[in-house]
Design brief:
This protein is α/β, with parallel strands linked by helices and about 280 residues long. It folds into two domains: about 1-35 and about 90-130 and about 200-285, 3-Layer(aba) Sandwich (Rossmann fold); about 40-85 and about 130-190, SIR2/SIRT2 'Small Domain' (2-Layer Sandwich), CATH 3.30.1600.10. It is built from ten helices and eleven strands. A six-stranded parallel sheet has the order 3-2-1-9-10-11, with helices on both faces. The protein has a three-stranded antiparallel sheet with strand order 5-4-8. Strands 6-7 form a two-stranded antiparallel sheet. α1 packs across α9 (about 260-275). The longest helix has 12 residues, at about 260-275. The radius of gyration is 20 Å and the shape is elongated. The relative contact order is 0.18. It binds 2'-O-acetyl adenosine-5-diphosphoribose (OAD). It comes from Aduncisulcus paluster. This is NAD-dependent histone deacetylase Sir2.
Length: about 280
């Protein structure tokens, strides 16, 4: 791949963006930190607060299906913290939305489950790690296409149950530690470790990799596959830009690394792009 060498500046990124018509954005928890949602792997991230979550042995137990079947409480505690509807999008979410509105966004592959892309008006996004919008019963597999089925239970710190499998009750309030949940626990369609990503992921990646002309990675440690593997499927001559607090990914994977808070970097880029409405309306976010 031809390298841009030492020209690692905002102006270079703006130049690439100005010519790009099919931008792929890969985003992670870092873009929602300014909204008040902690990321996972930073010093103050969710995984460092392991002690606060009853019964977890490993931080990643939070997203382990066998663990959830035995003890869904820690996941539901976490779900209450970030349930969609409680937070507002950051400048970065609006920046992605602006790229979309201008017809330059091929796809935003988000690993986030906070739903803030939708709130910011992004249309072309895929929630690679699933969504709270749909859920299913782990016993009978029955599916609900609405968050209303589980929302009030989560907010009241109860475990939602499928009334068909649980003998009529639609929630469970756990009594004491170690007590196993009843039949019919409902799980939101969040992708846990070892679960398949949404079918659309592979379809979109195959299709998008033939059209993409610029890749921007923001707010992700790139530690989780297969989403992180997307970068390896993009042709090597396509410019790849990292906007993050730290360098991540394979050594020298990126043509440009814009290190810092993504809201600050996106604001500077929006100024250079001359996107005045965005800068004036959302600049103080
Ligand atoms: P991580 O917590 O692993 O990484 C967040 C990255 O964002 C780190 O590199 C931070 O330095 C950076 N960061 C934090 N705040 C930032 C800011 N304001 N501006 C710019 N960068 C910032 O989060 P993900 O990569 O999203 O899985 O984690 C991937 C997956 O691991 C998650 O989707 C989750 C977890 O297990 C599921 O939810 C299933």
């Amino acid at each position: 791949r031809q390298r841009l060498g030492t020209v690692n500046t905002l102006d270079d990124a703006a130049l690439i963006l100005r010519h790009a018509r099919n931008v792929v954005m890969l985003t992670g928890a870092g873009i929602s930190v300014a909204c008040g949602i902690p990321d996972f792997r930073s010093k103050n991230g969710l995984y460092a607060r392991l002690g606060e979550w009853d019964g977890l042995n490993e931080p990643t137990d939070m997203f382990s299906l066998p663990f959830f079947r035995d003890n869904p409480i820690p996941f539901y505690k976490f779900a209450k913290e970030l349930l969609p509807g409680q937070f507002n999008p950051s400048f970065t979410h609006h920046f992605i939305s602006e790229i979309d509105r201008r017809g330059r966004l091929l796809r935003n592959y988000t690993q986030n489950i906070d739903g803030l892309e939708k709130t910011a008006g992004v249309k072309r996004y895929l929630q690679c790690h699933g969504t709270f919008d749909t859920c299913r019963c782990l016993t009978c597999g029955r599916k609900w296409n609405t968050m209303e089925k589980i929302k009030h239970h989560i907010l009241n710190q109860r475990v939602p149950l499928c009334e068909f499998c649980s003998g009529g009750k639609d929630f469970w309030e756990h009594a004491s530690p170690g007590v196993k949940p009843p039949q019919g626990v409902i799980k939101p369609d969040i992708v846990f470790f070892s679960e398949q990503l949404p079918e659309l992921f592979d379809l979109f990646v195959d299709e998008d990799c033939t059209r993409v002309d610029c890749v921007i990675v923001m707010g992700s440690s790139l530690k989780v596959k297969p989403v992180a593997g997307l970068l390896g499927r993009v042709p090597r001559y396509i410019p790849q830009i990292l906007i993050n607090r730290e360098i991540v990914g394979r050594p020298h994977a990126f043509d440009l690394c814009l290190l810092g808070d993504c809201d600050t970097v996106c604001f500077e880029l929006a100024c250079r792009m001359g996107w005045r409405d965005l800068v004036e309306e959302r600049g103080d976010l």
